[in-house]
């Protein structure tokens, strides 16, 4: 029996299949079309930018870092170009074998390998990392001949920071170092990531850190056309980098060198200010360090030597070292007595050589004369008893309230980072400082030692110098400043930094005159008379001896029985000329003993340099360094003679790293002699 096909049913099924197939094809074409519309219309700009980025590369142009000059145009920080051997880890198959092969062509030290390893851990694999810096021409030529054998290894020209005077003024100038994560985060918070693209280094200390934004400049870019393999074909566009500005300091590097040389191997600090405007003329902290060690990344051995040294060369003693001021505090105590009406200048206090309070005996040095003391004689002869009793009359809080506006125990606001406050004690301070209730009570006996600058008193030499400058300036207090202005590298335009207006502390002129007259008496018939014998100017000053460790009231100070780091500090504060002061300073020589024997001679030579243009003779310099000097000996060297003896040797590394003298900035006021003999060389 023959089966008959239902043609209509077959035709219907066929039509359904064709319709479904057509719908599927239409749907597929619709998806393709919609995707095409999405990519060509909605994602056009984004994909166009991606395509352009595949064809081109943006290369940052790191700006030249600005120079740092002293007040006379001497270059303290500059840049020079040198070749570096660099490796891109992602392009090297076997890193260890490659470095081993490179050692046959280029001198690679263990410290270079350690630095490379550290930088590799901090960097991305596609970034170029320096293995050896500052290659010689011979090393460059040897590698260039074998360049084909080292894929991923190349020689690049980089700018390096140079500190041509090495350790001289290192705490002021500071140094640069590789940017760490905290600094990256800070840059991101300031929204400056673009300006630091391609930059590996940033200011770490001193002026380099505090004026980083002025010194860094503006990063430029180059747009390059590249091949599929990433090889540069041609330059499409360039936006040049803007070099950093030149920063001009008030520092006199010749005076700075003189002071650092006079300290020799001893520890201490000196701050010299112009009391008329607050400009810092010298800012010395000894011992110093060589900032060139940090430029490429300091090696472990050098870091340990600096960080673990008992002399703490990395500590900026002028800014962060706090000390009891000793008897240099007495003139300010006298001024407090006059201003508050606590004691008249003619009031007589009998000095028997000790002061009794609450059953305790507060002694005086054995060489004090004693007897009837008025204010002038008490300052000139440095009577402890006079100021013990004065402190008791004033009380701790009255002392605090008078000394705080002078800057004691306060931040001066100087224009470099890291300043510490120190301690100006008061009852409120003690309650906040100590945790145990029984330690928070202020005892009347604790006030007595404050009168002679001991007890809880602890200040920086910067604070003591500012207070001295304020006294020398008749109660007008200027904020200390190291930077006078900047100079635009492109336009050469000078931009003096405006100084804050002085603060008038409201002292009565007759009270200031009484204290200043007594300080002049110190140099004419008091504790520093021998040091200032024969000076062609009058100066005022006060010697001080500050305890490094506490000595019991019943015990006698015996230098020979104490460890060197436990001996008293020698302190001196001074200003000159007496009638119209142009310089005020504070100096401390750690563990050196009596201020008149060690600290005051340094101050005398500073005044001779600034006021007379004189430089100590060689024999006098040796005597000061040994702590055996009084008035200058030998024939002082003059500026003209010193300039004739200048030897401008080129430091090792690059001729462009040699000391230079730029055009003197318009804001500089004077020129002083400077010798570059025996200056340190950068590594």
UniProtKB/TrEMBL annotation:
SUPFAM superfamilies: beta-lactamase/transpeptidase-like (SSF56601), Penicillin binding protein dimerisation domain (SSF56519). The active site is at 327 (acyl-ester intermediate). InterPro entries: Beta-lactam/transpept, Beta-lactam/transpept-like, PBP_dimer, PBP_dimer_sf, PCN-bd_Tpept, Penicillin-binding_protein_2. Residues 645-683 are annotated as: Disordered. GO terms for biological process: cell wall organization; peptidoglycan biosynthetic process; proteolysis; regulation of cell shape. It catalyses: Preferential cleavage: (Ac)2-L-Lys-D-Ala-|-D-Ala. Also transpeptidation of peptidyl-alanyl moieties that are N-acyl substituents of D-alanine. The keyword Cell inner membrane applies. Keywords: Carboxypeptidase, Cell inner membrane, Cell membrane, Cell shape, Cell wall biogenesis/degradation, Glycosyltransferase, Hydrolase, Membrane, Peptidoglycan synthesis, Protease, Transferase, Transmembrane, Transmembrane helix. Its EC number is 3.4.16.4. Gene3D superfamilies: DD-peptidase/beta-lactamase superfamily, Penicillin-binding protein 2a (Domain 2), Penicillin-binding protein 2a, domain 3. Belongs to the transpeptidase family. MrdA subfamily. This is Peptidoglycan D,D-transpeptidase MrdA.
């Amino acid at each position: 029996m023959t089966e008959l096909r239902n043609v209509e049913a077959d035709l219907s099924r066929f039509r359904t299949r064709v319709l479904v197939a057509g719908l599927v094809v239409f749907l597929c074409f619709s998806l393709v079309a919609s995707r095409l519309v999405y990519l060509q219309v909605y994602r056009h700009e984004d994909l166009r930018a991606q395509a352009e980025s595949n064809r081109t590369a943006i290369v940052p142009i790191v700006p030249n870092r600005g120079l740092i000059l002293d007040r006379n145009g001497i270059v303290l920080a500059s840049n020079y170009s040198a070749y570096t051997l660099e490796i891109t880890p992602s392009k090297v198959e076997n890193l260890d074998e490659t470095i081993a092969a490179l050692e046959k062509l280029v001198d690679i030290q263990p410290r270079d390998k350690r630095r490379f390893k550290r930088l590799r851990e901090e960097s991305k694999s596609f970034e170029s990392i320096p293995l050896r810096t500052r290659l010689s021409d011979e090393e460059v030529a040897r590698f260039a001949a074998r360049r084909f054998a080292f894929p991923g290894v190349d020689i690049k020209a980089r700018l390096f920071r140079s500190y041509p005077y090495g350790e001289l003024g290192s705490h002021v100038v500071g140094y640069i170092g590789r940017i760490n994560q905290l600094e990256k985060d800070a840059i991101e918070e300031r929204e400056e990531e673009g300006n630091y693209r391609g930059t590996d280094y940033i200011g770490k200390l001193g002026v380099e850190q505090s004026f980083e934004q002025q010194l860094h400049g503006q990063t430029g870019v180059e747009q390059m056309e590249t091949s599929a393999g990433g090889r540069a074909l041609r330059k499409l566009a360039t936006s040049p980098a803007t070099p950093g500005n030149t920063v001009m300091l008030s520092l006199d590097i010749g005076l700075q060198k003189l002071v650092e040389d006079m300290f020799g191997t001893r520890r201490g600090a000196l701050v010299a200010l112009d009391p008329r405007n607050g400009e810092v003329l010298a800012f010395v902290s000894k011992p110093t360090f060589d900032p060139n060690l940090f430029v490429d990344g300091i090696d472990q051995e050098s870091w340990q030597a600096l960080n673990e040294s008992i002399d703490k060369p990395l500590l900026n003693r002028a800014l962060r070292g706090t000390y009891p001021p000793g008897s240099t505090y007495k003139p300010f105590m006298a001024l407090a007595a006059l201003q508050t009406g606590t004691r008249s200048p003619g009031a007589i206090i009998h000095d028997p050589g000790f002061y009794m309070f609450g059953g305790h005996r507060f002694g005086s040095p054995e060489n004090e004369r004693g007897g009837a003391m008025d204010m002038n004689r008490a300052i000139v002869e440095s009577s402890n008893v006079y100021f013990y009793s004065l402190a008791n009359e004033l009380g701790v809080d009255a002392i605090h309230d008078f000394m705080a506006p002078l800057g004691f125990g306060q931040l001066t606001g100087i224009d470099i980072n890291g300043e510490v406050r120190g301690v100006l004690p008061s009852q409120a301070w003690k309650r906040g400082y100590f945790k145990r209730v029984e330690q928070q009570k202020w005892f009347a006996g604790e006030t007595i030692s404050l009168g002679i600058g001991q007890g809880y008193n602890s200040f920086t030499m910067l604070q003591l110098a500012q207070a001295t400058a304020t006294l020398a300036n008749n109660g007008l207090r200027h904020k200390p400043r190291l930077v006078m202005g900047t100079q635009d590298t492109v336009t050469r335009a000078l931009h003096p930094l405006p100084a804050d207006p002085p603060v008038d502390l409201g002292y009565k002129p007759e009270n200031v005159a009484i204290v200043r007259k007594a300080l002049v008496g110190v140099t004419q018939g008091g504790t520093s008379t021998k040091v200032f014998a024969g000076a062609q100017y009058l100066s005022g000053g006060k010697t001080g001896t500050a305890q490094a460790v506490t000595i019991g009231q019943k015990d006698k100070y015996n230098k020979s029985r104490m460890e060197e780091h436990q001996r008293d500090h020698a302190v001196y504060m001074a200003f000159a000329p007496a009638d119209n002061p142009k310089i005020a300073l504070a100096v401390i020589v750690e563990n050196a003993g009596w201020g008149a024997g060690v600290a005051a001679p340094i101050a005398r030579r500073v005044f001779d340099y600034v006021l007379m243009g004189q430089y100590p003779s060689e024999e006098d310099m040796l005597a000061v360094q040994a702590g055996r000097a009084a008035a200058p000996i030998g024939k002082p060297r003059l500026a003209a003679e010193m300039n004739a003896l200048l030897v401008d040797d080129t430091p090792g590394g690059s001729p462009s790293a040699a000391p230079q003298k730029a055009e003197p900035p318009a804001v500089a006021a004077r020129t002083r002699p400077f010798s570059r003999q025996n200056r340190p060389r950068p590594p």
